[in-house]
Amino acid sequence: MFSLKKLSPSITDMIRFDHSHVMVTFHQYTGDKRPSVKKALAETICDALEIHATLEEEIFYPAMRPLAGNQKVMEKSEPEHMEMRRLIHELRNTDPRDSRHDELVFELMRDVQHHVADEETVLLPEAEQTMTKDRLSELGTQMTKRRLELVTPKAGKIAKNTAVGFSSSTAAVVMGVAGALFAARAFTRKPS
Ligand SMILES: [Fe+2]
Ligand SMILES: [Fe+2]
């Protein structure tokens, strides 16, 4: 029988995929890019981080909180998201011709790398040790559904910024396509 739950990627794989995707975007940002490209890349990063943080706060962290062995890492996750949101707010309000724009992108990148490392070396392995595959997949389904709700109102803006930010990069086009396919896979694959 067709079961959406069985076909969905696990929530932990989805989180890892989001992390890789945003790091690829950070790596496109260099000081010599045109201001319009810098702004588009920054907006792509900000939107991706906001959506990812909301998904973790609404779905992954509540499921993980009672199971986490390392409560220290668990407890600092949301305050780190709040600090990230503060940087995002300042970045959005900074002119890309201002050197502060570069500083803010690189500060955000450092914070995100640190936060992602804690998640990938502590929380995600713990989730995979303490939850069943079915549970990880069911949470993956919840994450995909909620992602669609969060992305839909911003879809036009995200597509435009991705096109401007990545105009010279075929690698990024591949990543963008892979991301769209990954998100849609659970809903489009036909039962065999
Ligand atoms: Fe996080
Ligand atoms: Fe994360």
TrEMBL record:
Q: Which domain of life is it from?
A: Bacteria
Query: Does the keyword Transmembrane helix feature in the UniProt annotation?
Result: yes
Q: Which Gene3D superfamilies match?
A: nmb1532 protein domain like
* All residue ranges annotated as the Hemerythrin-like domain in the record: 11-126
Q: Give the UniProt keywords, A-Z.
A: Membrane, Transmembrane, Transmembrane helix
Membrane-crossing residue ranges in chain numbering:
163-184
Offer one Pfam family short name for this entry. Hemerythrin
What's the protein called, per UniProt?
Hemerythrin domain-containing protein
The species this protein was found in: Massilia aerilata
